[in-house]
Amino acid sequence: MELWSIIKANLKSKKGNFISIIILFFVISMALSTIISVSMNSKERVTTACKNSNIAEITTFILGNNLTDEMIKKVRESEQVDKFKLKNAVAVSRFEVNGKKLDNFKLLTTYKPSENSYEMYEEDGISLSKDNTTKPKKGEIYLPIALQKLQNCNIGDIAVIDTANGEMQFTISKFFEDPFVGSSMMGVKILLVSDEDFDTIYAQKDENTIISDTIASVYLKDEYKNQQNEAQKEINASAELMDKGFYTFTLQDANRYMTMFVDIINGILWAVAILLYIIVLIVIGHSVSTSIDMDYVTFGILKAEGFTSLQIRVSIMIQYLLSGVVGATAGILASTFIIKYVNAIFIPVTGLCMKTSLRMTQILAIIAGIIAIMALYVIFKTKKVISISPMQAIAHGRGPVHFSGRTDMSVVSGIPLNINGRLILKQVLGDWRKYVTTVVVMALLIAFTMSITSMKQISKADNVYDVFGGYPSEIIVKHNDEGLEMLTSIEKDIQEKTEIINTFSVDLVYLALDNNEILCQILDKSETANATLKGRVPKYDNEIMVTQITSDAIGKKIGDKVSLSYNNEQYEYIIVGTYQDTSDTGKTITMLEDGFKHLNPEFKFLDVEYEIADIKSTASIVSGLKEKYAEAEADKTIEIIDSYKQNKERNTSILAAMDSITAIAYFLAFLFAAIVSFMICQKNFTKEQNDLGVYKSLGFTTGSLRRQFTIKYVLVVAIGGIIGIVMNIMTNDIMLSLLLRNMGITKFITQYTVLLIIGPALFIILCTAVFAWIVSAKIKRVSPKNLINE
Amino acid sequence: MKKSILKANGLCKSFATNGVQTHVLSNVDLEIFEGDFTVIMGSSGSGKSTLLYSLSGMDTVTSGEVIYHNQDITKLSENGMAALRRNDFGFVFQQMHLVSNLSLYENVVVPGYLPKKYSNKKVNEKASELLEKVGINEQKKRLPSQVSGGEQQRTCIARALINKPVVIFADEPTGALNKSTGKEVLDLLTQINEDGQSILMVTHDVKAAVRANRILYLEDGKIVGEMNLDKFSQDESKAVETQLTSWLLARGW
Predict the structure, then answer these.
(1) pLDDT tens per residue across span A494-520
(2) What is the pTM of this model?
(3) What ipTM was estimated for this complex?
(4) Which residues are CB-contacts of B162 (< 8 A; sequence separation ≥ 6)?
(5) What residue in B sits closest to A430 (Cα-Cα)?
């Protein structure tokens, strides 16, 4: 009871301090509750939805007549296989909505809810409809929800495909949740049409526009369900199913890709939450130390009355514990409201309709853990209470503190500043130990906000290639053999408008590497290749380069040999270099055209890409070319594409989601910075109040004292800022490469601009200046006598 | 005829705590004269320190006026009061209140730089003189925490004198000191008063009070008695103390 009276009195008299702690814990708890719930809900959703949709453990998409009866028989006879189902589909060359073409591998098929049912979205694109059994009618098409943002389309819009007999139009009537390949991060998209329309399209299949496809679903026996990759290798070894396939996914891999973006963002937000928590602990430690110094006499009195050190320490700990619990509880409650908005950010990328419920068991366990750590830390920081002697504390207050004079300077020195300036410098240099916590906290905050700012570079289209890899071009000309002859003329037309910096060709194909599928980029020449991280680009036909992630995954490095196969052909290549590319989450290889001809002697490039000097003129150049070569485009001899626009639009959903998450991280960082600035200014003002009262009694004006206090803290934060900037420059690339590795980014290169370097520091300095000025208003309100005696 | 330097008319000071009003000073009228060593005495809680801080502008008043150089200083702006504290008033506190991270020397020069009346060099010289006068020139580079209470208090007196104030206000300057150290401080105050410095001091100590030439007695926020003391010799000090004590006791001390 007696302890509770002390706790209540302290909470009341220092409520500003504890309200700040409550807010800090509110922010962390809200962030963690949301992150944990979204992550777990996304994994649960993809598993449940795949189960409900009866998705097989292994799915291969096989084009044309590559699937033979012999293969089917061998698959069915495989030891691992329980069931093997086949479904007809068609791969369409063109799918366009509102003038935008879909880049992905597009498969049209029918909707059979009795075999594979999907959840349908309501018109709001956020909630699910109760009806998932209605099939598309003739003329209708169902699209995976991710395409709504990707294609910028809505229900009622018209989608167009090409057939051998001309265009076919469909009305978008529903968006559905495709838990298998519905994420915008995956290169395959399944589109659902009516049985009647499908039969019509299937009847028109050819080798260019409408290519027949089989969706081969392999259901494994229970004992092999957890060994999907191994089972895939075995089945391929006997039946060559995956070798013949255009794409193959195991359910585990597909689920991983589906939730990959959520995992990446959650990883970033976890890093944010942990860093903010470390800052909170530092601030709490500072707060506890300062409070003990200021309440020295009070503790002496309590000890004189018979309180033990343990009781006093526990009372201090309970104050912070209560603040933490209140803040955390409020944060958990707040997250119940924001989780649905966070889910809405992810839907365009994942395509999944995740639950909005909180994972209370896990949340409470983690929040309890961080509060327990905080409580233990507070108990640790209060150990100096043990050394307080009652009589000394009452009689003399805090024992004398001697300062080391090494960095001290005299106010009498010849520095050309007025007395206020010299007092500021003296306090910062002479009492530097007092400001260490402030400097450290501000350095961390500034380094952190710079990191968040640098992540926005990912979403700037101009930087995309530097970060994601790939080959920048503004204009692509697809051609057949006849169209090849027109290229010279097209190039001349482009050169009339702008300089052509680079001309190249790149093609993508899936090969088998040790019976695992891997995306291969085929280049026309060595000069086309992007810069390597290590080693060199391929020069000869038996050389490849791999991404660092691929190298780690296959356990092979520069100088090692790998065996690649394609369509029953096999060849051995040497790894000569590593590079960065985020395609297929960073698992790609690159070889030259001559190298690929060992696997496919008939291979030839069917497009040429142009990188031009005047990027801004791309749209007008493409428009002019389309006009001049309209006939050639009409009979499909050539196709002219504005790839600059296409590339910008390709990553729309991911970049939009990253923008949203970056904005959230920004908000958290700056809110934290503001609260921490306020707490530190408040605490330090209370500590310095006596001296400020003395200065006021000597004749310093209120204005000069407030300016002194404010400038001093601005200076301290500026020192923290410089340290934070240096810290960021030294660690940002490494840190973000680690955080974004799952995206395929193993070498993040920060592009430092004046804004990036100075912006966050300036914001935090401004916050400090404002709060220091506000907090020091007490100098004006309170008389010198009360400043000294309070 | 002595020149009046500070005059209080109808001075009232009240505090409100948790809705309860406490009247500390009630219509106090008094005058402070140039060259006087005036002491305010009274029992504990009589309002001595409150009166001192109200007269010196260190605290606000509830009503009344304090006239200094024909202006009511209770109506002055913040900057106006700061100017008074810089140029005209000096303070000596019971708890010294030296700035802890400034050396004794720096504690004296800093207020000297403020008025910008003299060059820094002149201020520095003046500070050294004062520290020599108060007898702590050899310790001037030390921090307050590194010297005794008496040495700190003597530094405070030097600090109060740096800008040649019209009057020095001293609140129980020997309250935190032992007997011998207290005597040193009182000797110093007596000496500077003899040099012409006007001093207004609050004390409850009779031995300190007899250093004054004028004693005001405060009871329940009002001045209820005034006594003038002539100069006396060392031999007469006991008798004077006894006389003063009787006078105080008669007024309820």
Answers:
(1) 999 999 999 999 998 888 887 677 889
(2) 0.79
(3) 0.83
(4) B90, B108, B109, B111, B112, B123, B126, B127, B130
(5) B101
